[in-house]
Specification:
mainly beta; 0% helix; 125 residues
């Protein structure tokens, strides 16, 4: 079982950048796909980005991005550091939300683990 903890949120002006971190503890982190999700006030949770596992080292890492963040957000992983990152550039006020990471089934981004506290991202206009 892998436990994940999010960090890196904050208050930034529109057009700014943040890098969120998702630190993992537990075994075999590289075997898990990881997804970033967000929940804005009064809205349902939505998937933002997903990165595949690296259990098969011969296969390249695959990524998925929701349309609203395509080209502005980049998800990456560092298995040696047991971490997944979400680089967010050109942030917009509508990106304000609590961001969460979770292990997922890559095919449909179905969350597999328990949810952490998340990290708050606030983008001012």
């Amino acid at each position: 079982q892998v436990q994940l903890v999010e960090s890196g949120g904050g208050l930034v002006p529109a057009g700014g950048s943040l890098r969120l971190s998702c630190a993992a503890s537990g075994r075999d982190f590289s075997n898990y796909a990881v997804g970033w999700f967000r929940q804005a006030p009064g809205k349902e949770s939505e998937v933002v980005a997903v990165i595949s596992s690296t259990v098969l080292s011969s296969k390249p890492v695959n990524t998925y991005y929701a349309d609203p963040v395509q080209g502005r957000f980049t998800v990456s992983r560092d298995n040696a550091a047991n971490a997944v990152y979400l680089q967010m550039n050109n942030l917009k006020p509508e990106n304000t939300a609590v961001y969460y990471c979770n292990t997922v089934a890559y095919r449909d981004a179905l969350p597999l683990g328990s949810w952490g506290q998340g990290t708050q991202v606030t983008v001012s206009s």
